[in-house]
Amino acid sequence: MAPSIHPLIDNGNQKGEPNFSGGTLHCHCPTNKVEVTLSSNVLHNHACGCSKCWKPSNALFSVVGVIPTDKLRVTANAHKLHIVDPSAAIQRNACKECGVHLFGRIEQDHAFKGLDFVHVELSDEKGWQEPQFAAFVSSIIEQGFEPSGIEGVREKFREAGLQTYDVLSPALMDVIATYTGKKNGKLSSKL
Ligand SMILES: [Zn+2]
Ligand SMILES: [Zn+2]
């Protein structure tokens, strides 16, 4: 059986709705689910092959998007959340019981501060922005994927209409570089 890239991408990349206004995410517990309510659509939704993002079982990639922090509220069973790795730049809040990551938040000074990282497949609603690109593709090799199969993985993304990168997309790398350039004084802070 061919490995799953991600359930949202395996059968073609379904387009989101431009006026979609949000919905609720749930963890995988059978009862007393942690619920997170998002009051807008996500941005920069993408597949990610890094080892830190939460992936559904059997999937090689995570699908992760961002949303402004003020558009996210934990609306049920918040007591079940814990932070997976308190030393990481992204504080990933996961359910203690089922292990699903509900949202990742940046508390330290960072280019993406003010944005939370979320996985829209935890929602039953349709209309979320579809994945726009694939990031950190080669990272799946570090997690045990046979290097000889990696071009086949890139081909699957291309078939789904997604560009593949081995870091983030150029647009997001530019955001990080701009932040770093301002911070180290090489770039005008007025930009
Ligand atoms: Zn749970
Ligand atoms: Zn990742």
UniProtKB/TrEMBL annotation:
Pathway(s) per entry: One-carbon metabolism; formaldehyde degradation; formate from formaldehyde (glutathione route): step 1/3
The protein's matches in SUPFAM superfamilies, at most eight in alphabetical order, are given as: Mss4-like
Per the UniProt entry, what are the Gene Ontology biological process annotations, in alphabetical order?
formaldehyde catabolic process
Q: How is the cofactor bound?
A: Binds 2 Zn(2+) ions per subunit.
Give the EC number(s) under which this enzyme is classified. 4.4.1.22
Ranges for domain CENP-V/GFA come to 20-166
Q: Which domain of life is it from?
A: Eukaryota
Which Gene Ontology molecular function entries are recorded, alphabetically?
S-(hydroxymethyl)glutathione synthase activity; zinc ion binding
What is its cofactor?
Zn(2+)
- Explain the purpose of this protein: Catalyzes the condensation of formaldehyde and glutathione to S-hydroxymethylglutathione.
The entry's family comment says:
Belongs to the Gfa family.
Q: Which HAMAP family match?
A: Formald_GSH (MF_00723)
Name used for this protein in its record = Putative glutathione-dependent formaldehyde-activating enzyme
